Amino acid sequence: MIWKINISKWFSWLNLGIKDPETASLVEVMLQIAVICLIAFLFTLFLRKGVMRLLAKVVKRTKTKWDDVFLDEHVFQRVFNLIPPLFIDFAFKIVYGKWEHIELFHRFIVAWILVVAGYVIVTVLDAINRIYESYPVARDRPIKVFVQVIKIFVVSAVVITIVSVFIGESPRNLLVGLGAFAAVLMLVFKDAILGFVAGVQLLSNQMVRIGDWIVMPSNNANGTVLEINLYTVKVQNWDMTITTVPTYQLVSNSFTNWRGMQESAGRRIMRSINIDMNSVHFLSDEEIAMLRKSDVLKGYIEDILPVLTEQNKGKGDVLDERRLTNLGIFRQYAVRKLEANPNLNMDMTYMVRQLQPSATGIPLEIYCFSRIQEWVAYEKVQSDIFDHLLAVMPYFHLRIYQYPSKL
């Protein structure tokens, strides 16, 4: 045959004559395997280059995006990796179909084919996941967890099949034998099993989505969810660091998801100003006259004064009368300023209320919702409100409580 090579001539040319016929035969087989492998790889190389150039041109002309993703993920290139083992196995059966070690050689080729085929399937799954992520629905229901589970099954199936090929047993018999190692497998794949179950719960109940802002103090996570996979959830914190949280911990432990705020019509503002209790007093006529000049308070004061006059008839003691206080009128002023602020959503709950007095004064809480939810703009809206309230407090003869300076 054309494949038969006179190995003795080769070694006599190299001045390395081999006298042992068995050794010469073995070396001849090895040389022919090398030649066949070289031909197979060269054939695959030229075929892949030609086909890929043509395929790239076709893909660019199509309107669909999935073929671009398959090309970018090297799916087609991976398929060409199946050609060398198939070519080598076919060619060697023709050349040495009756070789005593042909069966062992064939097993190695089958293992090679299985590994490459498994790699192709994994690459296809990555491409499918990437295509799916290009659609808006992927934000709410990512499939990466399921893709990773399928990858595990594919890799496990490849490994089990390769082992069964080498030991000459059916994969089913091998799986039956693995039943004895179920406890060990459960231990090895504990994180994968917990992650898969947790991932199904997270996605089916929509507990976490990509792009959600979550806070999980136990894992130092406070930022945006970047990725949800079988083992971990990646969170980009606001300081640009990345925190990886085990997927099952998002089911077993508590965390805060700010999606409800992001999907609502407003972002809550809830902050207090501590008022010095010693600065709270009844308003004098002069103070009322001064505050009455304000367009914000004029209507309220003109409405409330007749009511107070009517209620105070026949009462001559200050302890029995109902009178305006600087803190009370300041609360009314704050409420009206909130109502006039275009950046606040007045369709949602808003109020200015007193909290329990403490050693640090009387907390006066501002509770409302900003129409603007973006962090930087939201903080500006909140700061503008308190900047103004703090600046006008002296006009109400109120003081902020703060610890005395040591200087």
From TrEMBL:
Gene3D superfamilies: 2.30.30.60. Residues 192-259 form the Mechanosensitive ion channel MscS domain. The keyword DNA-binding does not apply. It is found in: Membrane. The keyword Transmembrane applies. Its main location: membrane. Keywords: Membrane, Transmembrane, Transmembrane helix. The chain crosses the membrane at residues 29-47, 108-128, 149-168, 174-200. This is Mechanosensitive ion channel. It comes from Butyricimonas hominis.
